[in-house]
Amino acid sequence: MTRGGRRVLVTGGAGFIGSHLCRRLLERGEEVLCVDNFYTGRRENIRDLVAHPLFEVLRQDITFPLYVEVDQIYNLACPASPKHYQFDPVQTTKTSVHGAINMLGLAKRLRVPILQASTSEVYGDPEVHPQPESYWGRVNPIGPRSCYDEGKRCAETLFFDYHRQHGLAIRVARIFNTYGPNMQAEDGRVVSNFIVQALRGEDITIFGDGLQTRSFCYVDDMVEALLRLMDNPENSTGPVNLGNPAERSIRDIAEAVLRLTGSRSQIVFHPLPVDDPRQRQPDIREARRLLGWEPVTALEDGLQRTIDYFRSTL
Ligand code: NAD
Ligand code: UDP
Fold it and tell me: Which atom of ligand 2 is nearest to the CA of 177?
């Protein structure tokens, strides 16, 4: 690599959020090492970055040790869509747990800060609403979502133990549902599913009655928050909720996508997946205080940009 700003490792850098993060880091003049096993990541997501003199890609599974020299680590590697993380649940847990151990070991050797992409799934199907960071969650340890939820919870434990035991500078971001360009058409998550179905004229598949809620954050807002958290002047560990508190039902999302695409697709109802959370909304007071951050992209604007992306790629 040519020497630029800081050398930043992004695991999962060819994935949806990771590819946007790599691009923003390069724009800031950092050197970026993108490590990905291309399980859910794609070359197309980073195609425009590979010619950049400060960008490097390494195909590597983070469940195996990694020996590189960097100044910061963003640990994003992990499939995030229920469809993909449930396909090989043992590998999902290994990625969260062994992957965290390997990346924390690397951060410990190098004495550099490391950020963990944790998730609102640590709250499970929450009884406290909206969810503050102090809420311990309600997670099923033995269900089909557990490989992801418990893997991410264990990763948080490891991050805090490395912090307490080895004095490591950690940042734990609890990311709520995020959407935008570079999601895969077949990703399986709700926003990409509905947009792709609407553009193809296929049925829009609502799981359950569609009255369950999520709070959707546009990816540019999320990347801004991750950058601010890594560089936060208080050196705060978190955990910090990152997401857009504007809560919507899944039915609302289907209707918004139909309106914005002008599609004549029909809405159909499928059974609700096991342990599908009923409600989710981040309490982002800590992110506002610590990072001076809040999302600025309205749902309709973010959906429109995502629709434009899928129109140009499908
Ligand atoms: P994604 O599936 O698009 O990206 C994950 C990336 O990690 C992919 O490029 C994949 O190939 C790579 N990867 C998976 N396992 C790996 C392994 N063992 N070794 C190396 N690379 C591996 O998902 P995303 O939406 O971009 O999510 C990024 C991170 O943010 C994940 O850790 C996810 O859990 C977290 N997160 C995302 C959301 C969201 O709504 N998008 C919400 C909460 C948390
Ligand atoms: N969902 C849906 N239709 C789809 C995909 C998802 O109704 O085609 C629902 C899903 O059951 C959940 C919500 O949308 O209630 C969000 O699902 P997603 O997989 O995007 O994220 P997560 O459940 O992990 O928040």
Answer: 25
- For ligand 2, pick from 190, 195, 280 the residue to mutate: most ligand atoms within 8 Å of CB: 190
Q: Nearest to residue 78, comparing CAs of 18, 133, 25?
A: 18
**CA–centroid distance, residue 79 to ligand 1 (Å):** 4
Asked whether 15 lines ligand 1 (CB < 6 A), one says: yes
List helix spans (H) across 15-145: 16-27, 43-46, 82-85, 89-110
- What's the pTM? 0.97
List of domains in the chain: 7-182+217-245+276-296 (3.40.50.720)
Give the Cα separation of 98 and 253 in Å (integer).
Answer: 36
Cα separation of 154 and 175, whole Å?
16
- Please tell me the distance between residue 12's alpha carbon and the centre of ligand 1 in angstroms: 6
Q: State whether the beta carbon of 119 lies less than 6 angstroms from ligand 1.
A: yes
- Mean pLDDT, consecutive 10-residue stretches, the chain (314 aa), reads 77 98 98 98 97 98 98 98 97 98 98 98 96 97 98 98 98 98 96 98 98 98 98 95 98 98 98 95 98 98 98 95
Tokens found for residue 293: 């951050």
